[in-house]
Known about the structure:
By secondary structure, chain A is an all-alpha fold. Chain A is 66% helix and 2% strand.
Amino acid sequence: MYSQGLMGVEETPGGEQDLLDRFQARIDAGEKIEPNDEMPEAYRKTLIRQMSQHAHSEIVGVYPEANWVTRAPTLRRKLQAMAKIQDEFGHGLYIYSAAETLGVSREEMVGQLLSGKAKYSSVFNYPTLNWADLAVIGWLGDGAAIMNQIPLCRCSYGPYARAMVLVCKEESFHQRQGYEAMVALMNGSPEQKAMGQDAVNRWWWPIMMMFGPHDADSPNTETGVKWKIKNFTNDELRQKFIKATVPQAKLIGIEIPDPDLRFNEETGDWEHGEIDWDEFWSVVKGQGPCNHDRITARRKAHAEGAWVLEAAQAYAAKQAARNAA
Amino acid sequence: MGELQKNTRFEHLLRLADTNLILGHRMSEWIGKSPILEEELALTNIGLDLIGQARALYEHAVAVSGEEDNRDADDLVFLRDAPEYKNLLLVERENGDFAHTMVRQMFYSAFAVPVWEALTRSVDSEVAGIAGRAEKESLYHLRHASEWILRMGDGTEESHQRVQDAVDALWMYTGEMFDMDEVETAAFEAGHGVDLTAVRSEWEKTVREVLTAATLDYPEDCWMLKGGRTGKHTEHLGHLLSDMQFLQRAYPGQKW
């Protein structure tokens, strides 16, 4: 699904001024940076962090959905849920590969996820408690992801930008599919409508948080924008998301759980209630409702699959020896 | 070649559909638990193929049964209890470890390939069409599972032992695949079905090749359990259904 762009980036541009100037000139000219091009170390590190966080988020983001995939209520929804999850694993694989062009291995990145060193989008640390959660993750979760990712199709790093073109097409499809599933529920029985509203009530704020801290509290934004690895600020993207979502919610009778949400005629923007940043930071730091479960599930898959990979390696070594003989 | 009774035709389609659905569902249970990212994609893909095949067959079965039976494909999937399910026992067995899942898949796909191939010549053109696509998909599933069995069998001591254990444990569920009971015989004679005794020799050849290449022992003859096609299942199916059917059972009669 999506990564929390640039979280925890401390590096500022350093190193040779000449290199920085040459590099900035290329960026400003709208050129794409390719794997073998010269680049400031901070650019490389920032991208590795952003891309690996994004890839981890695609993988960990599967768990909230996997929680309901075996309980999908019709054949159509079952196939949809499985296909969506398959897309997400594909995105993860694709983005890990794109990140590898920066000189980091997938093993290393996965190791950082399993050790808890690397972050993934905090939104996946919330539980899926009813079937409508899958619809809401598609409609609002992927909807928020698209806001972030469409601009990334134009980001300065070539492999990431190209990966995002495919990812965005699929995410847009997931968003429409999620909304369509939501429409079905909101046209359904009182119990189904209650499921839909309950899911939005629980996911709205975590999804608002997906865009990251307010611009004033987000020191990474300036460098990111300058290097074209972040083309809009957190607050700009959050605003775009609210603008797109409010009419969709209204159309199907969903109430957004923010009593302070109102349209400001003068600015043309939506004003929203205060985001609980204490909650956000505690989830980021590992204290969300499902942080433990998500990482445990990931570690378990890794540990239980180790013997399979060992077998594949042993077989490959035997084959190599046979071919050499 | 006589006309196949409508209820026999329905039953024959249901058996095929149920087997593919249940195995496809088992694949969806692997999500997030696979040994490697590439395998997450592969297992989900196999599951999608199988459930896709099942859906086409259920929809056709519904059309065949006509007005006498007003159940749709989802009713067939979500509102039948275990005794009404007609899938093979092999596919309802729990996933176990990766070796169990791959051996189960290889055993089934080695059967499915010749079955679908024969069904491409079914007098029922709808089934022949489904079979054409399903045969290609099953060939891929067979290759995928066989490649892994090769690596596990000829990999480490641990992997060899695990995959041999899986072969031995699942062997007793393979016999019923080739059982020509009344429904299978009638379907075959009417040009709708397959001569499963002929499929047996091809299956044995495929399985023997895979196991031999993987340095695994081909099991000795043993007592074969049967009952899946007549609704006599193992303990594992009921739990699968209680999970899969939860929403339709808890909130009956709703549109999703």
